[in-house]
Each structure stands twice: as C-alpha cells, then as structure tokens.
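[Q] Does anyone have a clean structure-token version of this?
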Amino acid sequence: MQTGMHTDTERCVRAVQSKDARFDGWFFTAVLTTGIYCRPSCPVVPPKPENMVFHPSAAACQQAGFRACKRCRPDTTPGSPEWNRRADTVARAMRLIADGVVDREGVPGLAARLGYSTRQIERQLLAELGAGPLALARAQRAQTARLLIETTALPMAEIAFAAGFASIRTFNDTVREVYALTPSDLRARTPRGTAPATPGAISLRLPFRAPLNPDNLFGHLAATAVPGVEEWRAGAYRRTLRLPYGHGIAALTPKPDHIACRLTLTDLRDLPVAISRCRRLLDLDADPVAVDDRLRTDPVLAPLVDKAPGRRVPRTVDEAEFAVRAVLGQQVSTAAARTHAARLVTAHGEPVDDPEGGLTHLFPAPDALAGADPQSLAMPRTRRTTFTTLVRELADGSLRLGVESDWAQTRARLLALPGFGPWTVDVIAMRALGDPDAFLPTDLGIRRAARDLGLPATPAALTARAAAWRPWRAYAVQYLWATDNHPINFLPV
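[A] Here you go.
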C-alpha cells in the first residue's frame, strides 16, 4: 500500500465493493447522490462507481460538504498507517495534530515544532490530505465531541469546551454539519445503560485492523510494568498518564475486535490526547497485513507469522520516560530494571489518586530527575553518567523526544551521548520514536532466536539478512522475541 491511495479510483472501488475493512482509514468514500461519506467497509449496499469520489481524510470529506454516515461511523476508523510508518513532515504533522498541538498552540505552534513556516505546513497537508491543519483539527474536535456526547452525561456546554471548541455555537454548528444531527439528537440515539462502572470514567472502544495478537503486546507491557505507574489487573493493563492539562489513568483490555479503553481524567480537555497516546502505545494504527505479507517472504519467519499473525510493537505514552527506562535497563534483567524505576518513582514521582487503588504516581518528569542526587542512584558510575546526562538534556530542552521527532536526527543526537550504543538507540527508536524499521541485532534475545532458527549469528551478518524484512524490521523483532519463553511474550492470566 502507498500514499495517495485515494487517487487510484479502480482500486478504491474494488475495496468498497468488497467491503474490505483493511482499507478503513486509508481513504474515505464520498457519495455524490446522498451527500454522505463512508469507510470502505460500510455495510450498506455500495453505490454505483460513477457516484463515488474518494478523499484521503475525513476532514477533506467534511470540507467538500459531505456528512458522516450514521451506519459505518467513518470518524471512528483506525488512523492511516502512513502517519506511523513515515518520518517526513506530513507524517510528523499528523502525529502532532492527533496529540492536540493545534488546539493548544495553534498552527504557528505546529509549524514551529516542525521547523517550517505555517504556509509550508498548510501547503503540504493540503496537497496530501485535501485539508489544512485547522480543518484536520476541527474533524478531530468533532469526533471528540461525539465521543463525549455518547459516553457521558455531561452538559453540552462542558462537552463543547472539553472537545476544544471556542464557543457553544461553533460546537453546535460543527456537530450538525458533520453528523447531520444536533448534539441532543446524537445523545438521544445512544443506547441507554452505557454509563461507565467507575464514576468519572469514560469508556470507549479503540478500533484496529485485524489481525491483532495481544500476547506479546500486553505481555511486554505487563512484564515490564513499573510498580505505582503501571499494573495488570483483572485482564486490563492500567497506567498513569501525564497529559497537557492534568493527568489521567488508562485501563486497556484486549477484546476480539477492539481494545476496551477506560479513561479517568482530571481535565476532559485531555481526552483526544489520551486516546491518541493509548493508540500509539498499542500500535493500533498499524497495517498487519502489509507487515506480515512482507515477513512471510522469508522462509524462516513465515512459520512464526503463520502461527501467531498480527503482532504489534509495544510502544509508549511518554517518549522521555521510555528513554530513561531504556538506560535503566542497560545490561540488567527485566526485574532489575523495574526495581530501579520503582525507586525513582517513589523518590521523584508525582503522587496521584487512583479510584481503584494500585496506581500511586506519575513517572518522574525529566526536570524532577535532573535534580536527583547522583550518589543515590544504585548503578555503576558509567551508567550513572549516562543517566544524568540524558535527564539533564531532556530537562533543558537540548534533546527533544516526541511524536514530532525526526528519526534520523534523533538517532544521531542519542548516539552522541555518553553510554548510548546501538542497542539503546535502536530500542528507543523502535518503542519511543515509533520507527517500524528499527532493528536490534545485538540484543541477547534476538541473537538467541537467530541461533535457534539457523539465522546468521553475528550482528553484521544478521543485519544483512534482515534487509529483506525492511521496512518492517521492528515487527520481525517481535516475532523473533516470541520464540523465547520469557514472560514478555505471554498474555498475563
């Protein structure tokens, strides 16, 4: 699959006629005779080809005057895999928009983070997505408003401002224009009895492209969970979230056709950001069919893929946090890394209240860690230097890790830090930056898997062999890790 699929009319028509859910989020179908737009898998009878036009985003459909279909709810599709597999300006911009930057900092803030002028950013987004940053952010606000209308009993005025609208009138007009229903009508259509069990919590479903194998995804998160910040409880991975306006707690439960998500937030304006970060954590916008098809071309990997297709890369909700934890995990066991992290959390984390108990802190921010006494860190002197250098550069802004990071530049910046070798940089690239092609040829688990599978033993030879797996080597890592009996590979019971 490639960028600009909406321009391939014949291929889009085939996807719509076959109701192929794999293409949901890749493009949207606008129907000229009805004035609505749908996802490719919409269950209604497909329109005639001459009545279909295709757009690259929901925002483009809305700008062209089309309303969202009430049957297939195209605004709830998984996001395009393009924004997670690419590191160019448009992809980085889309990740920032999903993280709420336009609502908080405006288009100038978005452009400044990317190092371009507002005109350049608007031109690039319009060329590829058919909509500029304001329209894309507006579409996201509409989706957030719909979610709050359907999952909470909040007054409409509170929902309007929580969703990011500047006025109640704009909120009403946008909802009516996008959904062809007033906010009150949307709420009236919602089945009763959908209130969350936890007071103040918002419950929703996170869609994904099938297949999704939850074993290594949730197994990894649970096995490496930092006490006080993360836990596995009653079939759900729970963790605290540091968010722009406050903090929150997310509970994520794997289901056959979605991820059940329950969010408890101190400020509802953080809802779209919390959703975006949970999706990123679980790699839910991946295209597993494209990934697995490529990896199956290697006869060694094919049986591993066929046995358990749809593995995702466990990622993070906080890039700086993960970088710190990667340093803590250098050359020590999973249990030791958790112990080191738990001590930092107890000493420097920000306390939070968990209505369900179990979670006690936010992971310490870089500025809090920068003030830690180096002598209090129970680690070798060289690693202590690595740790203190990292947190100091994160705290003063010399090193920026975020969804907008340029992967190549950030790798080079990390490699220049003392104590940062290829393994540390690549694991940060894979799990924090989201590079789908990051590879760990020096990792002990990978080398063990390579030996058992008859793959080349040395890092250089293994890297050469892995060239055939590009651009999905980070997913190959998950399949290779899964050959081991380590707890990260198994869904907790």
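[Q] Thanks! Anything notable?
[A] The longest strand covers residues 247-254.
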